């Protein structure tokens, strides 16, 4: 069996999640390529070495450029903050490496366009790229997509999507990198809002065309991370809310916030169609609610499907009926699909072009919030499609 | 339109619930007879007068015998504790009055047999009798029965029934009549266990044939009601648990308790059949859960049917789709069915014979708990059927 | 005990709900005035007569002016479509009658201003007026308001309010009056959107100051009611979505729709504050979810409070712990509070001025949707406050 | 860092689950010993080789005796059917290997007693043994235990435990080994009933003293596995139901079944105490419901605790707040605790003696079902304690 030799850049939260996926994927799924965890890169030598040992990588490096330059690496997995994505990804693609890049694709539309162009160019040389919108690989989400694609809810009229967290409600929570625009690009919008934009477009197969938005930063000064008394300015949004119209005719509400006290990771999507509805809540990620308007009228109701059966997406690789899987499995499924696509010589999804389109929506949201006006989502350049 | 002139005996909790039903039934339903709330009887003149005014009765009386003796009363509604049911019901039937009697039918099997015999004798003279197992008239319960009767869950294999309350968890709660065997007959068993016995037999159309049981009294001494320092003995069960076999082949667990902290009125019934399942929880009385094993395998799930649509049982009389009804509506539906049966010259259900059968199950439970052995449920006498 | 002699105008859905409340209120609550159901008015003599008999009114009339003119009427209860509210209410107030008026207060801001002015003028003569936002009287909603007012969730940051129905998803559903702008004023916006605007302002004690909105009419032609082949134009919104800012600093999403397949009467409100959260769903109207951020961290969670205990708002009038009430009880509670206020010589809430403020929000939403721009909510005139 | 060299016997469902745990544990937790997956044993050479490759073992063997005999193995992990547990475990302990043994400990009490005796003897030589009741290591279950142990629900009065599956509802499902008494020992009772017996005793810290039980086999003949037309006899129970009394004064209902249509892996435990209640449902394994009777009366309710926070049991090793884990994590936690105990020179729990006690309960259930009488649970021999 051939190998897919992986070099990962970054080893924080996302690095740990990706590592769990790379370690597990060949034990759960039968695949034509075996993932080899060759090297992990991090700026600090000691911390990178510790991460390599803990997360299961064969070696470590302190400069991602060294990893990209290695002949014995097939794929670069980018798990760093958004301000570094473009440089790493473009270099890796140029070096003929497949790329898996965490979301959001970039911190700016310009960077995202460059990345999408680089990916398109690399594609012609058989180099694959994928943006890591992992929630697409939650089995209940994929089941949702299939039901919608099969016409089971008819024409989608309403989308209701929220991503609710509460980890910075405390004003004493410090000024971490995710609260700084120069590193993170945006706040709740790019971090979690990006997920619900991608998911709803993925599930419905339609795209957001225009938005009206507001963003808010509830706590504008926070203690610095170093424990000094000085505080620093929060330069990103705590919350982003917007209405949207989609090209399939649906209207939508979106909300991403880090101030929803008690909601820890509350990614929820509900779609109402002309024939039925579907609803998903990541807090109960092994369940999907489906309302089938075609059933006898006295028997209609939201059905709680336990998406834990062998004939549900991805589930045959796991446990017997009724045994829940967890958050990390979405990453295992993601790299499963990536490996399968690479082995088959096909392009995995979501592509960088798909991720650029999400970036264009986020950009429209920011411009709408800034201008207090409806804003059209910019089209992608032809080259990026 | 003809009248049905009602005399009610007792005006506590059940009297208030029945009064709300009698006041409302003709405003909600189109019926051939109009209920007239002629008189309410209570032992204390002043309290009976107050109750009549508050609950909407035209007059009051202090002796139920006077009410039974009146020519201008068509129906006696018995809302008193169980130790008085037999005497009142038998006298009323003998006087040619229709009878609605609260559950449990009586405190002993002997009394229940006498009542069932009296009802059978009266029936031949066109006198109707009904035992007030009101939960049968919750729309979701009736929908449950219809689904089972239509074969939608196949052969019933499992019954899981609990009735959970917590109103006497506090050991300082006083020794009210419901905790005294001489008045109440039994404790949780007859008060709430009777409901789940009746409901499960009603919904499945099968009967309990044998039981193995335990009963427990967790708090054996309680303060007297009069506020004196003296305490008195609790002479009934706080909780009754039993396993049962039913004549349709199902096996069952039953539990009735007043010590389930946090469960206020938790009547729950789940049935698992060879083709599907149904589940009901009175805390969410406007909902029914239905699992249809005939759906495509990836779409099976417990469906939460909001039983609030016009084509659901009883609902066309009430509000538009999605508007919940409450506990008291079960009584309004009960008297609706009673009035309809009387007007049609038919026997309403549950009959006194049905209620006797429940009493025989309760009796078997008590004998099983006392003997620590499996006990067969006694058959009804032929005369009582 | 004194009487409050009521004349009701209109006897459709709302008339039936109000009738149930007037019939019941004095049986459930101890009040200084007894409601007397004197007369119901409807344009068609036969239908009004039938309604009077069915709903329990002593007499009927075919012209509301005759009812307003009667000396023996103390209160006019307006249950007609919105285009008639202003004329009836202003005449009734001028005639010295107390007024209970269904929501929305009027079809236009101009009418609502006139009504609020008339109510203010009447108030100085001891005449009371109230707008029937009945959901305020759901016990769980009132408990929610109390928790917020007591500071239990801290500063409110997020409001998430939807009112989801699905009764016109079928394009063959006919063109009823609620779908005609000339009669109904607006569609989902005024019918159900008004409720969530009122509720969220009521619960938080803050007001919406600006909105950005969209409205949509998914099905633009529908069959006429008379069964003719001809179809007619739907002139109101099927759905209205808006973002809002409130004067307390919160940001909000609102959505009212009649196209949320499977959601029958899904009025949901969630508030996230700096210290906790509360959430309510009318499909489970006897429950309130409360997240208390002050509890030990490992024990925090959304608590499902069964709002069915005697010490919960309004509940001491009803049944023992754990016994659900229904939709109609919100009206019984509403007239309870109205009677109590009239007897005490106090102004009930919500006042016509409160309802005008809701109307100003609805107006801002319509203007925002029409102009595709953020719109400030107009202030009330001083005279109307 | 030292190694713990593991030899696993059996590589079906449980073998796969244990392998995932061994592969993951050192990547998630900081431990003084590193698990080394040395060898997996299976009777068929080819299948064992395939399993070794798929599951991540360094080598394979076809006779467990060879594995036990190896000097370079520190621990034997027994994942075979119950009829082989005693022989393997006793041999392994005699050879000075630590033992992790799947549940139920054995198919008979006699075997379980021998194993407990062997474990006790080995303990004196520093050899550790543990029975793999993995559900103890679900974080919500451990939180439940801590709440009960801390007195937060007071004296436990009621236990309500079910384990509901539906995988053999179809009468055409074949006669697999789990349906044959000679291999499996019992049916639902030992397979899943054992879990709820262990869990409830673990959480409450009390023991079942007596039971009254029934067992049922709904489908008595099933097709043979080899696809021949001949059918074979099901020799185990499809369902086992029992009432129990515990030495702490609680009364309980237990039910284990493979015929609960629609319930896939429905392990549910509810405890009602004098001060509060706790409830767990494995279908929502990341949640715990807690009712705290000490809260203000109007705020009491079952709180849905998302057991996904860093300060919850085991969770600091995983993802940020609100990210669910899955079934397999219970095994990772199990081997984490086992490794930690071995490294610390302490005995892990549950011990073989604990598992023997569960076996004694199962035995009492079987004897009660056979005799239709209450049966006392036998005491353990002193030597086994």
CATH C-level category of the largest domain in chain A: Alpha Beta
Largest β-sheet summary of chain A: 9 strands, mixed
CA-to-CA gap between the ends of chain A?
Answer: 34 Å
Overall pLDDT metric of chain A? 96
CATH superfamily heading of the largest domain in chain A: Dihydrodipicolinate Reductase, domain 2
Outline the low-pLDDT stretches of chain A. none
Specify the number of helices of chain A: 10
Q: Tell me the domain tally of chain A.
A: 2
Largest sheet of chain A, order of strands side by side? Answer: 16-15-14-13-7-12-11-8-17
- CATH fold group of the largest domain in chain A: Dihydrodipicolinate Reductase, domain 2
Quantity of strands of chain A, as a count: 17
Overall shape of chain A: it is globular
Oligomer: homotetramer
Content of β-strand of chain A: 25-35%
Q: Level of helix content of chain A?
A: 25-40%
Chain pair sharing the greatest interface: A-C, 43 and 43 residues
Which architecture of the largest domain in chain A would the CATH scheme give at its second level? Answer: 2-Layer Sandwich
Please give the radius of gyration of chain A in angstroms.
21 Å
Summing up helix and strand content along with how strands pair, one would put the structural category of chain A as alpha/beta
Strand and helix order of chain A: EHEHEHEHEHEHEHHEEEEEEEEEHHE
